[in-house]
Hints:
InterPro entries: IstB_ATP-bd (IPR002611), P-loop_NTPase (IPR027417). Pfam families: IstB_IS21 (PF01695). This is Primosomal protein DnaI. The chain folds into 2 domains: about 5-95, no CATH class; about 100-305, Rossmann fold. By secondary structure, it is an alpha/beta fold. It contains 14 helices and 7 strands. A hairpin with a 2-residue loop joins strand 1 (about 75-85) and strand 2 (about 85-95). Helix 10 crosses helix 11 (about 230-245) and helix 12 (about 260-265) packs across helix 13. Strands 4-5-6-3-7 form a 5-stranded parallel beta sheet. The model has no long low-confidence stretch (mean pLDDT about 85).
Amino acid sequence: xxxxxxxxxxxxxxxxxxxxxxxxxxxxxxxxxxxxxxxxxxxxxxxxxxxxxxxxxxxxxxxxxxxxxxxxxxxxxxxxxxxxxxxxxxxxxxxxxxxxxxxxxxxxxxxxxxxxxxxxxxxxxxxxxxxxxxxxxxxxxxxxxxxxxxxxxxxxxxxxxxxxxxxxxxxxxxxxxxxxxxxxxxxxxxxxxxxxxxxxxxxxxxxxxxxxxxxxxxxxxxxxxxxxxxxxxxxxxxxxxxxxxxxxxxxxxxxxxxxxxxxxxxxxxxxxxxxxxxxxxxxxxxxxxxxxxxxxxxxxxxxxxxxxx
Length: 309
């Protein structure tokens, strides 16, 4: 049995190809993205292949859920119009997810003291056991993540409770979820971070390390109150970080201490006389800008240790 191609002459086949190309080109110029581009730059004559790339890469971005599902050939990038030397060019540029990924990588390279165990950093909300003792804290954490808007979300969370009840796991799930949503987020174990800051006085880079925490869109300070606080780390490290962030960028805390206990901790700095005024100043940068989430229940770390013996 002969195919249509066998019956048609070379001229007829070529004519069919050209007609399909013309139909495709007509549809391209009618597309809303191309219409916007042509209206924005009416004097420019863009090469046809670049117009197809502009349309397709930007269409793929409209329903993208993250880099893992990116459908563009150049993952995390799409065609964007750039004005260069009086003319407009279509170039590949990183999308919001790729920008966040790149920023996250720079943050991790800059701040070494994350030292949060992998099983915490890899926790997801789906994997968390949602028992009565921590369901409300998990709900608050999920709500924070799904409603987060860069530049608009300013209130953080203060997640507190006894040892081993899963506060850090909730914070780890927040880190995972925010990162998936393209938010630059940094979770730090506070005692180790303050030790790293002290060491950087001699090795250099202290200001960069402080700036990273001052400017990251979502900062998670794990186990605050467990550090051996000094007057210097309280007033010259934590103070400036929180001063910059309050009313502007949200901070999430986990702690074994209630807020009044945290204030006592800050007041009684190591090798110094009690300073309740300085402690109150730090608390004024924390307390008004967080919602409180108490976590209760059994000591999960102890239970895991007993089950493994």
